[in-house]
Write a structure and sequence with these properties.
7 strands; elongated
């Protein structure tokens, strides 16, 4: 009887790891495998986090960088475009009125190229960009150069209720190149008692502009356009 109980006790014991299948790993190797796996996994996850973090940092830093505004953007006023159109129209109207006076523009019809008015507008905006009141502070003198003489066509104050901050002198020229100077004499009328009145005069697209600041003693700025 004692022998049988001993045998039953022996059968109830769990099998020893040494007696298992040869494919099974020992406890030491299994622990080493688990340690190596956890180490490699955490390293790759840390690397991926660092890589993603570096990419996000780059994207964030790139989104924060914005181009610095230029000087023209700092001084730009949307109202300047509206004021400019009115000023250019005033200049063209003053020149057409001058054709009826006794000056270099005395004629029956004055031809003003659209390109000339466009260039004058661009130059006015450029010269008024750094002024405290912008184009509203401009005082504009109109002159026409013919030969060695220069006739005044009038003066315009952009805003008569504002003290001018700078003065611009526009020196326009008569068309002297091409076929026009040769044929414009054919359209002139002449009588013994009146001076020669040309039927049509055309202005050149080139001009000179002189800028003078009225609130400081800076040198004159002269630009050829």
């Amino acid at each position: 009887m004692p022998a049988l109980s001993a045998a039953s006790d022996t059968c109830s014991l769990p099998p020893s790891p040494v007696d298992g299948s040869p494919r099974r790993l020992s406890w030491g190797k299994l622990v080493q495998r688990l340690t190596d796996f956890s180490t490699s996994g955490s390293g790759s996850s840390i690397e991926s986090v660092s890589n993603s973090g570096s990419r996000s940092d780059l994207s964030d830093s790139g989104s924060d960088v914005s181009p610095s505004p230029s000087e023209e953007d700092l001084f730009y006023d949307p109202m300047e475009e509206t004021i400019l159109k009115e000023v250019v129209d005033l200049i063209a109207g003053s020149l057409r009125e001058a054709k009826d006076s006794d000056c270099a523009l005395r004629c029956a019809k004055l031809l003003i190229p659209e390109k000339l008015l466009e260039h004058i507008g661009q130059e006015l905006l450029h010269l008024a960009a750094s002024e405290p009141c912008g184009l509203r502070g401009a005082l504009i003198d109109l002159c026409v150069e013919h030969g060695a003489a220069c006739d005044s066509m009038g003066q315009l104050s952009v805003d008569p209720y504002l003290v001018p901050t700078f003065q611009l002198t526009l020196v326009l020229r008569l068309e002297s190149g091409g076929l026009w100077p040769k044929i414009q004499g054919l359209f002139s009328t002449k009588s013994p008692s009146t001076p020669v009145v040309r039927q049509a005069i055309k202005l050149s697209t080139g001009f000179r502009v002189i800028k003078k600041k009225l609130y400081c003693s800076e040198e004159l700025l002269i630009e050829e356009c």
